[in-house]
Inverse folding.
């Protein structure tokens, strides 16, 4: 797969508001757990048990760690398109050019078409999406009429790669 890569991109969740929410929630819960467990002061008007509080802190830290390691990787070469949404896809998903009817870069509405970002399933006609932010993506339509949209922060480079491969259909 590494041979002849024409386009490569790694994306992460970088929305400032997402990190602010996670930072505030972690701060509140860690502070509350410290006060309740080590100082003996109740956290809130109706405090959780120490066990439930520790489990909440652990789950929140786990979610934060997941967002830290999440990444969408896309590679394109003469053979086809390779994509993975780590850590959900440990290896790349390979889509050979022979199985792709249409490959084009397009603007889309993440909320309206797919309900947000991540590994998304849109309406029946929209297909699936893999995205982390933004509103630009590589739309793939397969021979079996299924669709996959892969988000990108490099739409112009992606268009150029498709042009080099002779796959641009604009």
């Amino acid at each position: 797969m590494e041979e002849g890569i024409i386009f490569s991109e790694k994306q992460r969740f970088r929305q400032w508001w997402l990190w602010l929410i996670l930072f505030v929630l972690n701060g509140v819960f860690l502070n509350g757990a410290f006060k309740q467990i080590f100082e003996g002061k109740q956290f809130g008007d109706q405090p959780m048990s120490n066990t439930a509080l520790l489990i909440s802190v652990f789950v929140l830290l786990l979610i934060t760690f997941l967002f830290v390691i999440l990444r969408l990787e896309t590679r394109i070469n003469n053979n086809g398109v390779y994509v993975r949404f780590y850590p959900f896809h440990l290896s790349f998903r390979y889509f050979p050019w022979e199985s792709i009817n249409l490959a084009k870069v397009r603007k889309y509405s993440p909320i309206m078409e797919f309900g947000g970002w991540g590994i998304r399933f849109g309406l029946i006609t929209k297909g699936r999406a893999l995205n982390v932010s933004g509103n630009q993506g590589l739309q793939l339509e397969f021979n079996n009429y299924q669709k996959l949209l892969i988000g990108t922060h490099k739409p112009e480079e992606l268009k150029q790669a498709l042009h080099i491969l002779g796959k641009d259909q604009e």
